[in-house]
Write a structure and sequence with these properties.
The chain starts with 22 loop residues before the first helix and ends with a strand. The protein has a two-stranded antiparallel sheet. The longest helix is centred in the last third of the chain and has 38 residues, at 170-207. Residues 1-24 and 219-232 have low confidence and may be disordered. It is an all-alpha fold. The protein has helices spanning 23-26, 31-51, 56-80, 85-108, 114-128, 131-135, 146-164, 170-207, 211-219, and strands at 226-227, 230-231.
Amino acid sequence: MAGRVAGEVGDANTPGGTPAPSPERDRLVTLPNLLSVLRLLLIPVFLWLVLGPRHDLVALGVLVLSGVTDYLDGYLARRLHQFSRLGRLLDPVADRLCILAVVVALALRDVVPWWVAVLLPLRDVMIGALVPLLRTRGYTTLPVHFLGKAATFSLLYAFPLLLLGHGEGSGPLLAKVFGWSFAIWGIALYWWAGLLYVWQVRRLLATTPPLRQRSTAGSRPEVASKRGGRRE
């Protein structure tokens, strides 16, 4: 969640904008982190339900529970001030793996076309390719943008509706219409957030010198020259 990255980019009270280590940020066992782990554990359960016995209603319940944990982990992190570096990593990883697993499972069931199953992970591949560039500036990631969370919520609404719409009758037809509405918006927002991330990385690369240059400049001995009795 966006709230879980608060204070991770920099701290004005520490040199160079590096966050000062604190027990709060370094805690591993927090309620938000446990919820993110639960969301990860629900992924194989969903896959088994959809691809094995095809208990679609139970699988829908698992998806709903996953969506609830996705909301609660960020809300509780802000409410309880339980921000952590592990949470900053777990939350987006859980989101991406959940979306990937669900869309692949639905493609295997012919609920969604394969171009959807390819388009979503392709955006994540694009984002992952930027990580080595971020590391040259001392970053591993950038703060989560609200567009990315909006895309995730749209897709988490879309998938259960599309699964419900995989049938005959007016009810499934209505679910399919709403499901595809959320899916189209979700895919568009997902890629919009990805392109925004690319623009943020490009701006960071243009305005922040590489770590190697900064360390060389910081370790260079100060050279003093005398000109007319003045030190420059």
